[in-house]
Every structure is written in C-alpha cells, then in structure tokens.
Write a structure and sequence with these properties.
The chain is of the alpha+beta class. The chain is built from 14 helices and ten strands. Strand 1 and strand 2 form a beta hairpin. Helix 3 runs antiparallel to helix 14 and helix 5 runs antiparallel to helix 13. It is elongated. It starts with a helix and ends in a 14-residue tail after the last strand.
Amino acid sequence: MLTSKFLMLTSKFLVLTSKFLMLTLKFLMLTFKFLMLTSKFLMLTSKFLVLTFKFLVLTLKFLMLTLKFLMLSLKFLMLSLKFLMLTLKFLMLTSKLWNLHASCGIYIEVLEIHECCRKCQIVRKPLKINIFGHYQYYYVYFCDLIKYIMTDRQLNYLRMVPVERGVLDSSGNVGYWSGNPYVVAAKANVQSIFDQILVDAGLTEADLHGNTTNKELLWHDTAEMGVHMNIGTKVWAENKIVPDPVLAEMMHYTMTDLSRGAIQEVLVSMNFILGKVNLIPVLELPNVNITPLQITNYTANIAALTLANPQFRIAQVVKSAATGDIVEKFVLLKKAMAKQDNLIHTYRYTHKVFVESYDNGRIIIDLGKTMKTEEAVLHPREHVAWFHQKYLPGDTLTFRNHSVLAKVKVFLNDSTDVPTTGGFVIDPEHEFKMAIPTDFQCPFGHYIIVVSLSDTDDANVTGILAKGKSASSAPAPPLI
C-alpha cells in the first residue's frame, strides 16, 4: 500500500515537474520573443538616431546657407547704399555744372566748351532722371570734337619724359650709354610711344611747356615786382612817424610765395600787396625806392596775369582731340620707362653721379592746388618763417634737411620769432612727414619757424605743405 501511494505521488510529482518544465519552456520562448522585439526596437532606435543626426546636419547646413544669404544681402544693401550716394553726388554735380562731356563723361567748364564750340556743333538735349519718384530735368551738351581730356597726372608724366631725355642727351652723359644697343633701343622705344601719345592727343612737345611761356614770364615779372612792393611796404611800416608793427609783420611774402603754387592763391597775395603799397603816401614813396609808375605797372601786370590765367586750360581743351587708346599707350610708356630705368641703373657702380642725375630727372613733382613748397639756405643760427596762415591743424608738412652737417629745428609760432621751448630737431640728410601740430611738440601757431642749429655750416632745407594727410613716402617722426 505504501509503495502504491509512493508511486502515485511520484507520478504526480513527475506530472507537475513536466508542467513546470513546459511553463519554463514557454517562459523562455516568451523571453526570446521579448529579446527579439527589444533588438528590433534597438535597431529602430539606432536608425532613428541616425536619421535625427542627418536631420541636424541638414539643419546646420541650412542655417549656414541662411547666414551666407544674409551676409550677401547685407553686402548688396551696402553696395546699393553706396550706389545711391554716388548717384546723389552725381546729381549734385550735374545740378551745378550745365555742360557734360558726352563721349567720356567728363565735365567741361563753360569757358572751355565755348572755345571748342567755335569748331564743332553743340547739340542740347534734355535728360530726365527719376529721383525717388520725382523727375528732375537736366540739359546735356554733346560735343563731337572733344574725344578725351588728359588728366593733370598724365600731363605731368609727359612733361617728365623730355626732361629725362635731356639728361641722357647732355654732353656729359651721352658718352656713357650711346654705345650700348640695349639702352639706345629702350630710349628710342620711349620716344616712339611718347610721340604717338602727343599725336593722338593733338599736342606737340612745345605744348607741354611752351603754350604757357608768355604767362610764365608775366608771372615771374609780376612776382619780382611784388617782392619789391612787399619789402618797400614793410620798410615804410617800420620807419614811418608812428610805426605799424602789425603791417610790417604782414608783409612777409618772398619770391617763392609769389612765383610758385596755385595761380589763384598767388593772385590773392599779389592783390593784398597792391592794397598795402597803396597806403604809402606819394611823397614818401622815394624813401622806400618805389615810384608811382612802378605801382601802375604792377597793377597792370596783375590785371594781365588774371586775364592770362585761363589760357592754359583753354589751349589744353582745344588741343585735346585725342583717340581712345591714349590710356593704353600710357601703360606702354610707363613699362618702356621702367625698362629704360633698369638699363640705366646698371651704370650705378661705375658712374654713380650719372645715375643720380637720371633718377633726379625721373622725379615727377606736382604741387597742384592743395600743396605749397618753401626752400631756404640758412646761415649758421639763422632762422626763417614759412607758410603764414596757410595751414590748419590736421595738415601735413614734409620737411627735408639736405645738409650734410647742419642740424635744424622746426617750431610752430604766432610770430616770426624763434620759440624758447618745444620744437623738433631734424638731423642732416633726413626727412620726415610731420602732422600739424602734434609732431612739432609745441602749441599751434600760424608760422612754421625753421632755425639752423649749426655754428659753422649752412643748412639747405625744403618744406612741402599738404592739405590734410600727405601721400609723401617720408617717415613720420619717431615717438619720444
């Protein structure tokens, strides 16, 4: 009985065990399915992350493109603003000048276009311009005769070429290079291009200098008379019964003041001197070696010089029937001159003075209307006053001390006396580009004072005054 019960229990246990094993197997099957689903979920998650990363990359690229587009839009707006500013400037100029050069867009003064009108037909046509919705009407004058007007810089360059040729052809220099076929060919090429430009411009070599010869002679004569009137007036102001030191101080003009620079400014100075010399009583004129006839002649010369002043520009316009390839030929001329320079510089080691004279001839100096120059040779401890009331703070003085031994010192002052403090010392054979007044190490004054510091040697100095900042290659003074 016990055995049968044991067997019964054993069979039940085995049944239960089999059931447990079946359940365990099912659990394992479910676990396997869960793992399979989990792996699929992870696969999908990884794909989602990859797609998310790609989306972020594309978003970043889109933002970069958007930023570039905004930058380009900003540049476009800035260019549009500049274009509008230029358009407004153009319209302002157009409203002030009522003659427009048709073929190259250069404005022509009334006096000049009247000169060319004698030989060609002028056509007057209306020009309608829309300015922010409002229409403005201008009249444009078309002239078929004038093709090209040479710039002052181009004319200055052309004037340099004959000067350089004269240096090479001088009796003391021609022997150095005449046997060198390279130099001969380069010089001939320069001359050929130079001649072509003159032909195209309707000019002759004499026109570069000769068409103002009469005016230059008149200018020089009037300047000499002006200096005589200036010193006479100064002496009268210092020695009359009641001396006038203010008037004496005002009569500071030199030959450099009256014979160089912009002609309009010179005429103002000449008329100023004329007004002051007329203050001298007739009976006192002999005391300063001035005669009424000299004053009459000086007055007539100023009037004649005033009338002669526009003649150079008139002649330039009449002579400017130029073809359109002048600009290209100037490029060729500069290249030819550079080639000639290189050839001449091969003589520097054996003929230094010849090369230095050649380089001096190559210097193009154009003082123009916004620059003035002064030169002086100072004896030991001598001083000179320059540029009275001809500059403002912010202008620039390029100062050159050509002396071999003598030092000089420059100041600013409101009188012609040498200040006791401040100033800047310039060593021999040095040049500096000096801002007014900061580089002078003294307060602003209306005279530039230059004094020689040498006790034994003369000082040779030059000053070039420029309005605003100067394009000079001279260095700025060192900081102290």
